């Protein structure tokens, strides 16, 4: 049934009437953030000291860490003629469903290789999850978070194998942040996957393979939170995680005003609980990039490890190639190679049904019985949904 508009109409009107007030409040907060940005743009030691004072009270406080550049700097694109090989990976999955006749899951990773003067190459790596693979440490059927953790790991693992065979400079891309930002951080499997993931990044660092995570339409306030700390008294720092003076203001709001099309921001370190195990050359940094057009900024966040940050040319190569990829998508700016990897990885409902059928056939051939799809699921299947995705 459709939404009961009659029932919520009053709430819709009230929300609409509050919108102008809300926008004025947000604009006032944005202006205050810009004032702080201008004031502290070059005060990098002051910004860093404030973060360290906060971390003494709240070790898991999440914010940006200033680097060695003014935090309001805009760095234009440097165009490169040097040949570089691009590799991208993106994943899709089938999540185990207790309503299906057979319990199984799938992690599908699409790989794309682009090199100047060569035809694109693509590959698919598919992993079936069955039997013991379907259960967590507590014996419960695994859900979306654990599947997503495994998918994130598989994307990086799938990239490592082919790039080791390349001789030219290589840039690998994945959709989303580099940090493994998933629930269940205290579980054994999370810690195992994190250790394996860090090992993969270490091997990429040893081979000087450039790598980046592309975050489209970021809503984070990492830099805003860094600036907010400057407004707090020493007594307030112990409660900094509970104070949100600039709530609703994102970093993208700020850098949309600073960065022209093609520009990137200063490079910041990432302070969070999730990245504490990423040390040295693996420590995660990020910059913001305007992949939009004049009058229509589109700010994305690009996460990179320390070994990329230490090479200015590597930053320039990453910036230029991301912009070149986005330009291929026209007004819907998004890296073409990531789009191709996503399309390659997608799993259809028809494929899920076919996989379930194959499993059932094998079980029947062995004289084993299978269950039946629940009535609830049979009814839901009438909705016409055709694909699985992230």
Structure description:
The chain is an alpha+beta fold. It has one domain (30-390). It is 40% helix and 17% strand. The protein is built from eleven helices and eleven strands. The chain has helices spanning 5-40, 44-57, 144-163, 188-206, 222-228, 251-258, 306-309, 312-327, 336-345, 349-365, 375-380, and strands at 63-65, 85-94, 105-114, 121-129, 170-175, 210-215, 268-271, 284-290, 299-305, 347-348, 387-388. The strands form two sheets. The protein has a nine-stranded mixed sheet, with helices on both faces. Strands 10-11 form a two-stranded antiparallel ribbon. A hairpin with an 8-residue loop joins strand 8 and strand 9 (299-305). Helix 3 (144-163) runs parallel beside helix 4. It is globular, with a radius of gyration of 24 Å. The two termini are 26 Å apart.
Could you give the topology of this structure?
Blueprint lengths: L4 H36 L3 H14 L5 E3 L19 E10 L10 E10 L6 E9 L14 H20 L6 E6 L12 H19 L3 E6 L6 H7 L22 H8 L9 E4 L12 E7 L8 E7 H4 L2 H16 L8 H10 L1 E2 H17 L9 H6 L6 E2 L2
Parallel strand pairs: 2-5, 5-6
Antiparallel strand pairs: 1-7, 2-3, 3-4, 6-9, 7-8, 8-9, 10-11
